[in-house]
Predict the 3D structure of the following.
Amino acid sequence: MAAKFEYTQAEEIRDAFARHGVRYLFIGKSGAILLGFPDTTQDADLFVEKSEANGRSIVQALDDLGFELTLAQKDEIERGKDFVQLKNGPFDLDLVFAPDGIETFEDAWARRVEVEGFTVCHPADIVASKKAANRVKDRESLPRLEAFLEYWRERNR
Amino acid sequence: MRAPEGDEARQWREEFEAAARRPLRTRFRYAFVRTYKPVLDDATYRSFDTLSEYRAWCERELPRWLGYGREV
């Protein structure tokens, strides 16, 4: 089991992904936490653009970060599976190429929020994806996350 | 989906305001926790062609109490 996710590791993702020109957005609770949502989570979720070029860049960035990927796994990431769960590196990372509740990467990218160099999904998109996923754990966190969205909008008006 | 009860909404708002006063690095320190999740943590790599395949796998394979399914 990897160690818990730390701020320095988020910085490493940000820097490695920037070096290789990866188009990505933090999503899920890790994204909400970057936006100021006070809660806990276990790993980082990244919404990544599904294209072969972006897939190649992701693989290069993951290599830099110390993820140990086989050739077959690299090929899957380059081809863009809809969901890849990585627990073979310094921290756990979920790559989501097609999250529930968001039409396209471009839509989410246009609404992105930047926090200290981190590219993050708009909180409304985070709420939309959790609503669409509708898992038990999403339903538990949604009331507070929706209250945070309202607060965030007031604060950033 | 439940609505916040009583003082809950006010308490949440106070928590949001307190979090906004903390630097990102500090927020991060207390936001990420690590506990073992059975089955989910037992493989180093998984991939799914579609998100619905992943959701179906979660429903089928994971203990319900983890909350990754749609039913309790």
In short: The longest helix of chain B spans residues 8-21. Chain B has a mean pLDDT of 92. Chain B has three helices and one strand. The helical segments of chain B are 8-21, 24-31, 51-61.
